[in-house]
Amino acid sequence: MPARYVYIWEYFVPAGLEADFAALYHPGGAWGRLFRRYPGYLRTELLHDLENPERYLTVDYWESQQAYTDFRAGSKTEFAALDRAGERLTLKETFLGEFGFPE
Q1: Are strands 5-12 and 92-99 parallel, antiparallel or unpaired?
Q2: What is the average per-residue pLDDT within 84-100?
Q3: Residue numbers of the domain that contains 30
Q4: CATH number for the domain including 72?
Q5: Residue 38 CB burial class (10 angstroms; 0-12, 13-18, ≥19)
Q6: Beta bridge partners of 57
């Protein structure tokens, strides 16, 4: 099934923590492993800004917003733990929004 729901986060990672950040946010990292346990998860992309070495984006694709909502409801404890781990690796994180695909 094609993606119908996408959300994007922006992160600023201090020098020296890039590898730890990638281990958590890379598609094969801890977040991706958690996501893959839930139906409706499709993929994650980790993007690194070519102009600003501290800046990264994550783009997470789900079959539907409901699939993501179900994931959040079923993963509260693990989600909170990974979220706390990520906060220690970033200078700033910003939710850029939720997106769908035009019909």
Answers
A1: antiparallel
A2: 96
A3: 5-43+57-99
A4: 3.30.70
A5: middle
A6: 10, 47
